[in-house]
Design a protein that fits this description.
- There is one protein chain.
- By secondary structure, this protein is of the alpha+beta class.
- The protein has a domain at 13-146: Beta Polymerase, domain 2.
- Helix content is 34%, strand content 24%.
- The chain is built from seven helices and ten strands.
- The strands form two sheets. Strands 1, 2, 3, 4, 5, 6, 7 and 8 form an eight-stranded mixed sheet that branches. Strands 9-10 form a two-stranded antiparallel ribbon.
- Helix 4 (147-154) packs antiparallel against helix 5.
- It starts with 12 loop residues before the first helix and ends with a helix.
């Protein structure tokens, strides 16, 4: 089935809160909007909006979004309908959501891995943390992924937007968050990563 993948009219974080407020699961705004919710202002344009939920809660969320068109991004086959009651395997972590077949895409549902009380990074299972520390809330009560966690996910692509997000967020991170991100990057990219050098320089400057 062919889809217009460029036909996006993303919702805003406040709309995500309205859609998800009755859901009986944890959820967080992710991606670039998570960065902006942490900063407290919109720093750039956003082509989409991501909502992160735990993989264990996927069917609860699917039921909550009854009436929406939900398509799993199933590599390498592209988008396919997410069938009612279907538990998506770990290789699938992205679901595109729209209100109807003629409607633009509104948001992406992202699945985070967990094992009990902890979430773990899908690219390196050793990197993990308590689910209670995966995100925070802004003054309006909108939950968002913690900035150090979001930067870890952004570190792979290193688009111009990713680099801009890092430049904005890195100076605002507390010592604990900065140390966590530095350690996670060093574990994931032992051959080196441009953010490792920048974070190390910031830490060194703070210690002098």
């Amino acid at each position: 089935m062919e889809h217009d993948l460029a036909n996006w009219k993303p919702i805003l974080p406040a709309e995500a809160q309205e859609i998800m407020e009755e859901a009986t699961v944890l959820w967080w705004v992710a991606g670039g909007w998570a960065i902006d919710l942490f900063v407290g202002r919109q720093t750039r344009a956003h082509g989409d909006l991501d909502i992160l939920v735990l993989r264990r809660d996927q069917l609860v969320v699917q039921h909550h979004l009854y009436g929406w068109e939900l398509y799993a991004a199933d590599p390498p086959g592209g988008l396919r309908p997410w069938q009612p009651g279907e538990s998506l395997a770990r290789g699938i972590h992205d679901i595109w959501c729209r209100r109807g077949p003629a409607e633009p895409w509104a948001f992406q549902l992202m699945l985070a891995e967990d094992d009990g009380e902890e979430w773990f990074f899908r690219r390196n299972r050793r990197i993990r943390g308590r689910i209670s520390t995966l995100g925070s809330r802004n003054r309006e009560g909108i939950p968002f992924v913690a900035p150090e966690v979001q930067l870890l996910y952004k570190a792979k692509g290193l688009t111009e937007q990713d680099r801009a997000d890092f430049a904005i967020v890195a100076p605002l991170l507390g010592d604990r968050a900065k140390a966590w991100l530095l350690s996670a990057l060093m574990q994931t990219y032992p051959e080196g990563h441009e953010w490792i050098e920048k974070l190390s320089a910031r830490q060194g400057g703070a210690q002098r």
